[in-house]
Design a protein that fits this description.
By secondary structure, the chain is α/β, with parallel strands linked by helices. About 40% of the residues lie in helices and about 20% in strands. The chain contains twelve helices and eleven strands. The strands form two sheets. A six-stranded mixed beta sheet has the order 3-8-7-4-5-6. It has a five-stranded parallel beta sheet with strand order 2-1-9-10-11. Helix 2 crosses helix 5, helix 7 packs parallel to helix 8 and helix 9 crosses helix 10. The protein is elongated, with a radius of gyration of 23 Å. The N and C termini lie close together (about 10 Å).
Amino acid sequence: MANPENESNESIPIILLKNPSAGHTDPYTSQFVSHPPSSAYEPLYVPVLEHTSNTAPINDLLSQYSRSKRPDQVATAHFPFGGLIFTSQRAVEAFDSALGSISASDVQGLPETPLESLRQLAIPLYAVGPATARSLEEIKKKNMPRCWVQGGEQAGTGELLSKLILQGYNGHWNLATARKEKKPLLFLTGAKHRDIVPTTLLSAPGDQRIEVQTLVVYATSESPSFASDITNTLTATSTARIRWIVIFSPTGGESLLRSLGWLSDSNGKDNLCRVNHPGTFIAAIGPTTSNYMKTTFDFSVDVCAETPSPEGVRKAIEEFMRSHSRQP
């Protein structure tokens, strides 16, 4: 393995296998350019996934809610769910897209529009990770001012969010003694998703158990251009003495390793021992992605972020480079 210490003043490419945030500076760009030595890093984005929003289920839910609610009814009491769960920015974007797609024809004959009903709601909006929480805060400001966002920084994984919900949501309903039945939570997610949050909530013992209904609001697939895009980016950064590639999900792992020439064509395992690209290092956003690369391809990433966040990734990379710079 090459010594990863950056002895020259050249920028280190940080190739992020994700879509950059829309509408504002991506948190990974901010993290890598705002901490000294900021000039040492060059964040580059290569989208791996292609997302297709499915707003129809959300629109149907909101329309049914508005049609069945009388103007004199309290919005929160009439809403069928006690809170909404979002574990990805894609789900938040699909929800926001649904709110923006409500047309005049959708609300004809309603006593109040779905957006008017939403503005009266006072329920928790649960989010995994700070990026998802920030996106939810924007929706809250625009359309759901009485709601509140929970999770975010304190819940960077589904496991942590589940614990937060079990404590907070159950505590909320235990205090509301006048309510005879605990409302379910609505989990807005993609067609491909991990079931950690709903499984944890549904398997809680006794009166701690929380019902969860799942609403699929987007589909995910590997971008058809990813293989060529990553190859082009690797070619463009091939002269860098050191470069890092950050993997955010199992999707695209095989295409990445094949583009680097690190997979055997015979059995798809890591048989080439990184003979090609010795100055290229791989970081994983978390243990799920790291374990997938190991079990599927027998490939060990160089670092796995302790916390799945921009700061966690940067710290993992910098600690690795500091520790290995002492090697001869």
